[in-house]
Amino acid sequence: MATALQLRQQFLDGERNLGEYYHELLNRCEDVNHRLNCLNVVTSELAEATVAQLHSKLTSGRPKGKLFGLPIIVKDNICLKDHPTTCASRILNGFVPPYNATVIDRLLADDAVIIAKANMDEFAMGSSNENSALGLARNPRDLERAPGGSSGGSAAAVAAGLVPLALGSDTGGSVRQPAAFCGVVGLKPTYGAVSRYGLVAFASSLDQIGPLAADVHSAALLFDVIAGHDSRDSTSAQQSLAGAEENLKAGVRGLKIGLPREYFAAGLDAEIAAAITRVADWLKREGAEIREVALPHTKYAVAAYYVVADAEASSNLARYDGVRYGQRAAAHDLLSMYTETRHAGFGAEVKRRIMLGTYVLSSGYYDAYYAKAMKVRRVIMQEMLEALNAVDLLLTPTTPTTAFKLGEKTEDPLAMYLSDIYTVSANLAGLPAISVPCGVDAAKLPIGAQLIGRPFDEPTLFRAAAVIEASSR
Amino acid sequence: MNFEAVIGLEVHAQLLTKSKIFCGCSTTFGQRPNSAACPVCLGLPGALPVLNREAVNMAVKMILAVDGSVGMTSVFARKNYFYPDLPKGYQISQFDRPIGIGGRIAFEDNGVRKQIRLTRIHLEEDAGKSLHPEGHSEDFTRIDVNRCGVPLMEIVSEPEIRSPREAYLYLHALKQIVEHLGICDGNMEEGSLRCDANVSIRPVGETKLGTKTEVKNLNSIRGVEKALRYEIDRQIAIVSSGDRVEQQTLLYSDADGRCYPMRSKEESHDYRYLPDPDLVPLQLTPNWIATVQRELPELPLNRQDRYVHDLALPRYDAEVLTSSPGLALYFEETLAACPDAKLVANWIMTEVLARVKGNAAGIAGFAVEPARLGRLLEMIRSKAITGKIGKELFECMLADARPVEAIVAEKGLAPIADSSDLGGLIDKVIADHPKEVARYRAGQTKLLAFFVGQVMRATGGRADPAVTNELLRSKLAQSE
Ligand SMILES: [Zn+2]
Asked: Predicted ipTM?
């Protein structure tokens, strides 16, 4: 399959016909989805209308966007005007946003073609895409395995070769973990680099929309398009961001890269440990300096993460009460209407987290849980920023294991939560992090290497990711 | 046993911003239901709040005006609770780090200066409105979200108010301050100013607080006073009979002047406050505050003091003239054209207010602009016309927008000061009243006023009093 860059060039050069390409692609969506269940809705009409516009742009000689003609799939928690946005939840049944997320506006302004909304864990809560009201998605590398979550549908679609680009959202690793499981590139941008306007909130202080792509260059291209200040999002960064695509080929010579020793402890699959050591060697060979660093508070990250994320989730999900949109249960009084609507509308995992979040915020437990978790969060952030003073990047595994079997962890939420162990720290600290494929295990399942960088230093992440990508080929 | 009341007031003032506190929707009152609503104020999935700087400026104005301290970093928090007219399932408010801390509101109570300290001032968004239409066969509720996101400033007093009268004066002073600052229209009927009261009683001398009740639904300043009087009497009756006051929320009914308990089981709220992760902490700078400080107008009580001390006006006059910023402005602009403060005050309090009352345009739209009134009063002050003529002229000016001088010229109301014009007239008056002339010449000089009156009557009040006096005196002194 052509990379995003090649595909765009083929459209511009007239080597490939837009109409024919999309006719074929939209047909393929059905086949791929039949196997993987990675799409919640195929937006054929929107795609066809966009293609028609691009066609006339092609012949008129007007300037062409960075994503000209490129097909893209967006996670179903990103609002697309006049199309259902489900978050893979029954409670949003029938909800059609009358507005676009800022990232959608930016994609369209740069001539991308949105062809589908991707399947996901309900409200982005999960690590396997098994918590979807629309059914689980499958990993194209092995249909019996999870594509990872919660952006599993987006990652699977890219891995299946359906599209070169997709958008996911990452609250605790939801872009990087499925990227690692499916063998694609996934970036969690610096908090504030990409507008959250129109992203249905899970945990607002952690959520960030990020690109998933078949290759590093495509991911950088997509990041450059979606990043930048948005006056509609108060947490959106004011500063101008350096282009990630420009210096992609700059290499890693002179970069200092840290290996946090806490990320290589018990629980890590030996094959993954070996793969990451190999990655370190590649980077060293290309001129980077590798050193070990210590991040002793890492062991508290998962606990702090689940307290903070669930607290915010319990508040963010309060609006789904059946009063204004979505489905409403029939009931005789207000309280039963709320409880029946939420009982029928939310899945088990979402309910579990709402209850956890409500508990840690309640006045009697606030200090013991939420306030303490926020303190831990600050310590972790401080510790990581200090480490990143000494080194330019941190290199870690993305996940402790490769893609696990569907159903393997659904009965054990705690085991499921631990699959985010290497990714949550970057969210707590607001740092950018990328997962890039770096090989496969004995079962031919993809392994992801994670790079964590300084705030707004995505360009350096992409430089190192490009080196890993080139070395692993 | 003698009891004293312990009262704390929570006042919600709707800020006069053009748009809502977290989105661009209009705040105009009385729009078609649900017409002023966008994804943000509806809390649609993915929509995010963006703070309106105008609302912040208004809150800072208030904090500076009441000598509170501005929280340089304040935090917006979510107050979580379920209610159908609360679209997000939480209200964005300020909790442990409000924008304003402390301050005081001062007022005069029968010549005694009092002040009530403030606990805090914070910003928050309003919720929507649930409408329960009556007379329908089916039970249903309608929701109007137009109010959702309307900016409110909550002013919380310390429980230092000791009587319904003090509560009345406190609220009156607070209302005048927000009106003078131009940050709230002070209209309690339309809900622009809302008040909840916390009330308890205790034996005089006791320092411990009694069980308090919260009285809601107070929609006029008089209503607050009446509701408090009722509630205090009720609590005293309970305690005096040996019972205990139950902690509860009461609704005041304007119709019968009584308080009724609200559903009590819904009161034990755990709001689960959470710093709103969608809004970064509000960071103010000394520069920002200095800019607001420069825009700060004079406060009503300071203005009153100035009128009393610098203009030698009675306190009552000063209070009336500062009862609205528009009236104070009218007074001061009139004063610029006529420096006799008492004269100006009298005219405004009688002639002007009588005509402005009940007029929708109010003082700002009053037909006689302050400069024109000032010139009229200046003519009276300099005795260019008499007060009587002045009132006639004022009547004309209500319908005639020209400068007072033009009207005077046209109506021939200019005073007669020319001794040749007045001479003949005075001769006639003297000739017509021989008896009075004789008495005057016999020493009853007080009769001069009688002759002046005659001349005034003959000239329709236009005779210059000074010239008339002079001429009469000299003519009466001559013997025939
Ligand atoms: Zn709005």
From this structure: 0.95
Q: What is the DSSP letter of B110?
A: T
Q: What is the mean pLDDT of chain B?
A: 91
Chain B residues closer than 8 Å to A341 by CB: none
Closest CA to A309 of B44, B88, B274: B274
Q: Is it the case that residue B80 has pLDDT exceeding 90?
A: yes
Q: How far is B293 from chain A (nearest CA, A)?
A: 26
> Which positions of chain A have pLDDT values less than 70?
none
Residue B197 near residue B188 (C-beta atoms within 8 A): no
DSSP B404-461: HHHHHHHHT---B--HHHHHHHHHHHHHH-HHHHHHHHTT-GGGHHHHHHHHHHHHTT
Nearest to A298 by CA among A424, A191, A214: A424
Beta carbons of B44 and A97 less than 8 Å apart: yes
Residue pair B181/B58 in contact (Cβ under 8 Å)? The answer is yes
Q: Which residues of A touch B278 (CB under 8 A)?
A: 201, 204, 234-235
